[in-house]
Amino acid sequence: MNRTRIIRYIALGIIFVVLIALGIWYATLSGRTASIERLGEARGFGEAIPSFGESIGSTFENIATGISAGQSSPQAGDEGGEPPTLWQASAVPVAGIGFVGSSSPTMRFVEKATGYVFEVDPRSGSVRRLSNTLIPKVQEALIAQSGAILLRYLDDSGRTSTFSGMLATSTDTGPLAGRELPKLISSIAFSPNGSEVFYIVPDGTGAFSGVRARADGTQQKKMISTALSGWKVTWGADGIVLSQRAASGIPGHAYAIAETSGATEPLAGGVPGLLTLPGPRPGEVLYSAASGNTIDTYARAGKNAATLSLPIRTLAEKCAWNPAVVLEILCAAPQTIPPHYLDNWYRGATHTLDVWWRIDAARGTAEQLQSATSEVFGSDPLSGASDVMGPIIDARGEYLAFLDAKDESLWLLRLRP
Amino acid sequence: MRRLSVHIVALALVVPGVSYAQLSLISGGGLSISASPALPAPGEVVRLSAESFVADLSRSTIYWYKDASPVGEGGTIEVRTGEAGESETYTAEASNDEGIVATGSITIRPASAEIVWESDALVPPFYRGRALPGPGTRVRAEANVRFKRSDGSFIPPSDIVYSWERNGKELAGVSGRGKSRISVPAPLLFSTDKLSVFAESMDRAYAAEAHALIPSTDTVLVLYLDHPLFGVRYTQALAPETTLAETEATLAAIPYFAEAARPDDSKLLYRWAVNGRVVESDPEEPDRITLSADGSNGFAFLELALEHATNWFEASKSAWQITLSNNVDGLFSDPFRSSQ
Q1: What confidence tens digit (pLDDT) does each residue in A244-259 have?
Q2: CB-CB: which of A112, A349, A389 is closest to B230?
Q3: For chain B, counts of helices (H) and of strands (E)
Q4: pTM to 2 decimals?
Q5: Contacting residues of B for A242, CB less than 8 Å apart
Q6: If DSSP codes are grouped into helix, strand and coil, which group holds residue A93?
Q7: Cα separations (Å) of B319 from A33, B95, B120, B136, B272?
Q8: Are residues A300 and A373 in contact, defined by beta-carbon separation less than 8 angstroms?
């Protein structure tokens, strides 16, 4: 009898312990699930799926309001009044920008996260999505005036890839039709009308080729052979220009390449930290020299004109020639030059607060954009200043667009009322 | 330059009267003319000097002519060279009371040359700066020489003889006809190499020289946020003290200028430590580490030491104080979280 009772007590005890253990296990699992859900929500799993049928979707729509909280950015798609003189067109990181057409200024940009192409009407501030071809993590994008687009990204193997595309329609959201260009292109540029490209690519022998081709990659023609891959390609009034990638204090060289023969002609050379920015007319060039904490900026109004030292200190990559005003350049100049500026800026290790200047390249003079800065920033010209990267000006000289290197957001500055 | 001097003497003695680009020579009349620099570039100011071992120039007046037009007088004059391919002959005449006692001439064909170079060191894709020579890397260099003929055509590199020197020592193995490109080891730590090239056309009518100073560079360890949407944020390096508005973040290290093709190269040995504790790195992605604030105060003292499996000169260290918190406005705001 006692033995039976003991067995019952033991059995009840085991059941009790099992129930307690099950309860603890359930509580733990439940807490873990909640934690995972919270993390999932934090990563956006709880967000609604972008409505690809709409003109707006993707990262821009989903998170722009969150990122741009506190900034005077018009809501995407708004058709309201005229935006401010300086306004943020995209708070999410942008891979590249370009003005298209020449009649009325229209700007397009490529969203970094998705590769989607957006169009901005600078006059109304409206933003709409034009493409629905998903290419994640686009690192660099080029947009020609013709509307042709190059998207640059890494493929699954980590190789540099370039997709050349054209929008099927400019009125509705549609696919970005195109094809891939050769892998491992280190630098590429559109021709002025956007119908061709010139790029640097390995030739398989340890050297590199400069190849000219149609924008879709067909009709490739090898123009030059070079031992280096580190060239920056631009294609403008002086034809194709190759500039060595720059490093602070290291002399660099730039060459103009004859478009037919491929012959190279020195454009500038032996300049430490050389950066060049060819102008819209032949012979015009802006260049900067960087060594340590010293930055010098120069302009040349024509092939036989004297090189003028400019009274501002900034990098050529923070400047844009105004195609609508002869020999006018707009430059964003840092208020102070941080140590080892060029190298650290390229590595994203330093950022500056820049002020806009209008340069007269014929006289070598500069004046601050007082009206714009006072209107936008009030008494403190630096309160909303950006670390300007890759500015461009539309063909009519009405708007200037640039990226802020701090967060790769897109800004538009109205130059004329 | 020693090589050039030998050329000058030998040619002047063996074939007097023949014009060689940028070379001084006695042209019959006992007057020797030298140019400085000996190999001028287009548009460069050149100092021409006359000397003689047969005439007493101190009792003579020296008149200079360019293509029969007078351009100056005296023992030395300065002239500016023309464009590439333009051949200019300067004649000097030394005369005294007895008439012309000595003559000489020099022909200048300005040519330009420069060395462009880069390293094969690691830089991230789409990096806009120059790849600099870190320890153990190699330097790719190319001599861009322009010998413009009078008909406007250029002599191709395959018809040019290149003589390379590194820190004054001839690089015979990589010199020769058509050898416009070389690859040399990066300079040793804390040193600067001088790379020189002397280029000469096959017929020796054209010559030019150039040099480049190549400083050694240390590996620079930089840390970035590897964002799930945007990828590695190369424009936003993490400062030594950084607050990230994230509860979990993957960070990617880029050893700029290291001897490797990719950051996850198996020869690069990453040693991560968080708050003093060594963390095993992912064999697939040793260059990355994921930090999570779950169950902690979100602060991480992150240390990274980098070594190279075969390069003993590679030893880099860096440290960051990183705070993961979704309650602050950090450098990188979490867009999803902040929109809630």
Answers
A1: 999 999 999 999 998 7
A2: A112
A3: 2, 25
A4: 0.82
A5: none
A6: coil
A7: 34, 77, 26, 24, 10
A8: no
